[in-house]
Write a structure and sequence with these properties.
Two copies of one chain form a homodimer.
Chain A lengths: L5 H4 L6 H8 L5 E2 L12 H10 L2 H8 L8 H12 L9 E5 L1 H13 L5 E6 L3 H9 L3 E8 L2 E2 L1 H6 L10 E4 L13 H11 L5 E5 L9 H4 L15 E6 L11 E5 L1 H14 L5 H12 L2 H27 L14 E5 L6 H11 L1 E2 L1 E2 L12 E5 L5 H19 L1
Chain lengths: 398, 398
């Protein structure tokens, strides 16, 4: 057999996979999976939608669709994004297989082997693996509570030989960092990138999951600012507002970029599932999204509060985290010298798991931190689980 | 904005797209789309399946699934392939977004820019675009009625500097050539490739669509021969036996290849739609496939016969084609000096369209041929459409 291609030779199994197998054991309290709980999906709503589809619509669902997406869904998503003041009329939209495929396509469009991508650190693991699969040189920049640290971002542009082509940010309820960018930081990012020869990827899958009205005001995408100081690829997803199993997301970008994205998608999978696109379209068009996410916000806010209160009550003072204003995650930072893998092992032995920090470090090094997801864990188990994790931390800090 | 990556710069809009927009006009008889007719989909069967799913199964459908696929579907597909004597126990299987994603992943695994892929000529356009998207050097080999022409295949291995890494074949009811490989030709291919440092992609989406029992015997995959003389990536699809809108296919290959394919898929879309996987699993597990495809075979065979008879009655003797033993297509060859685009224009003006030959030439040149799909056209329109096409040919040959 011939050797694998260069990009494949660099691919490594992520450590998240072994964890996920533990996560399905009923005796384990899992804060590992970055996913909604199965009990939260809008099964009834989709039942109703499916059974009211016309025969014609059902047949369309079985057929190939246009590469950019099922036209009524494109219109419904545009209408939805219009309510967020996103510039859907001067841009084009393509439906993708989740936000990950959108990231992958943008990476394909702009990355030749060795090209530099700037990511946050920590970073969404799907983003990291998409960039690596095109042999990108990843340069990462740490976050503080308000977003990417500007000084360090600026320094990445100093080395002219590196010439970053993409900057990948998840400004809203960050996975895994749990933070949301301040208005000021977003402006600083845009001001700094203005006129630079790069593309900004604004990855926004958690946009709807703010916990109060004040936090909602922080969710205004950078993409709404027109004219764009730098070309922005705005990415969204149905995974957190309907279900990841639909495998539907979108990319909103300039017509030039979307036209190339269509060609790329033609060579990847021709089109996303028309069957799930027909359902997702009705979910939006019938206005079911609104009441569904209103309920999600209440549930996730409650779970976050239980987790946050329990961390406050149980973690030693050296342990830091930012209370999330939305989303799925609390990112726990330990003193520099502590290895979260040790804590993970201790904690798993006692019955609670999470994802260790280096999983989210694009360079796979920094490990004095870990991610707790509250999205997936029933309320009555959060406290018990957090206590187990806290005990493991305390034992290590003694 | 930075320039697009090298692979994207080479991407061109395929001419098939403009045709497809014509194909939706009700006054046009279309032999263009390589797809089932909407009226043939198993809507009732899937209705029944959906409404009998347990709440638990439905929720699974909304959730992320494992990257290799929904485990019960993997088992059902394996069981199905076992009935075809495919070596499912010594190989592994991954569920993909249609067969195109499987081809794309194999290309990703083995192609660095400039590496050589051998394809047939004509070739499935999705295969061509997947290979080109990794900047492969495509070398194509013509077909005769029994398969790839061996002399010309062998010559492609003479130039040691080219060193083909992949050989991509669609041996069964070829798209667009309509032929099926003879037993002898398959053996010649395997004998020649034995021990060569390359991988054979055996793309088999039309396997079930044979028109009689004698033709069925020709559908035995090369992958069934053990031990494999050359590593074979065997690819199948639900697109022709359930519906392309499900976006489900599979790749059966050695554990080493599948393990890398999983890593690649993790960076592409994480998993295929669990929602459609749950449905496809029941379609197989409840044995609904068998009776459904039995009916499809009868319908497609009838459509093919109408088209073939009508071609025989109307085409001038210089025009050649092979009567298909299964599948969707008749590939019509004209004298060398005739340009099928001219015929297409004339025919479209009179109300019948098809896909011109060079669309399927990986080098975009050879155009004295065209593809007629009978899969998508109601019986009562085939004769009228073929007459229009034949008139256009006759006018040109005069």
């Amino acid at each position: 057999m011939p050797s694998f291609s260069k990009c494949v030779q660099e691919m490594r199994t992520s450590e998240i996979r072994d964890l996920m197998s533990l996560a399905t054991r009923p005796d384990i309290i899992s804060f590992a999976g970055g996913m909604p709980n199965n009990d939260l999906f809008p099964v009834k709503e989709i039942d109703e939608i499916y059974n009211n589809l016309s025969d014609r619509e059902k047949k369309i669902g079985f057929q190939y669709g246009p590469t950019p997406g099922y036209p009524p869904l494109i219109e419904s998503v545009k209408e939805y994004l219009r309510t967020k003041n996103l510039p859907v009329d001067s841009n084009e939209l393509i439906i993708t297989a989740g936000s990950l495929q959108a990231i992958n396509i943008v990476a394909k469009l702009f990355i030749d082997p060795g090209d530099t991508v700037i990511t946050e650190n920590p970073c969404f693991i799907g983003g990291t693996s998409a960039f690596k699969s095109y042999q990108a040189n990843i340069e990462s920049v740490p976050l503080d509570a308000d977003g990417i640290i500007m000084d360090q971002l600026k320094r990445k542009f100093d080395d002219k030989s590196k010439n970053p082509r993409l900057v990948y940010l998840s400004p809203y309820f960050h996975n895994p960092a749990g933070i949301i960018y301040s208005e000021k930081r977003k402006m600083e990012v845009l001001h700094f990138l203005a006129g630079k020869d790069c593309v900004l990827i604004e990855d926004d899958p958690y946009n709807e999951l703010y916990f109060d009205e004040k936090s909602k005001q922080l969710t205004v995408p950078m993409k709404t600012i027109q004219p764009e100081p730098v070309p922005i690829c705005y990415i969204g997803s149905f995974s957190k507002i309907l279900g990841p199993g639909m495998r539907l997301g979108w990319l909103l970008a300039s017509p030039e970029i979307i036209s190339k994205a269509q060609l790329a998608k033609q060579s990847i999978d021709a089109c996303s599932s028309t069957f799930t696109q027909v359902l997702a379209n009705q979910f939006l068009a019938q206005g079911k999204l609104k009441s569904y996410v209103e309920n999600l916000r209440i549930i996730y806010a409650r779970r976050m509060k239980i987790m946050n209160d329990c961390l406050k009550a149980n973690m030693p003072p050296e342990v830091k985290w930012v209370e999330p204003k939305g989303g799925f995650y609390i990112w726990v930072e330990l003193p520099e010298n502590i290895d979260s893998l040790q804590i993970m092992k201790e904690s798993a032995a006692k019955g609670a798991i999470f994802v260790i920090g280096k999983t989210f470090d694009p360079h796979g090094v920094r490990n004095n931190c870990f991610r707790l997801a509250f999205s997936h864990t029933p309320e009555d188990k959060i406290e018990k689980g957090v206590k187990i994790v806290s005990e493991a931390v305390k034992a290590k800090l003694k």
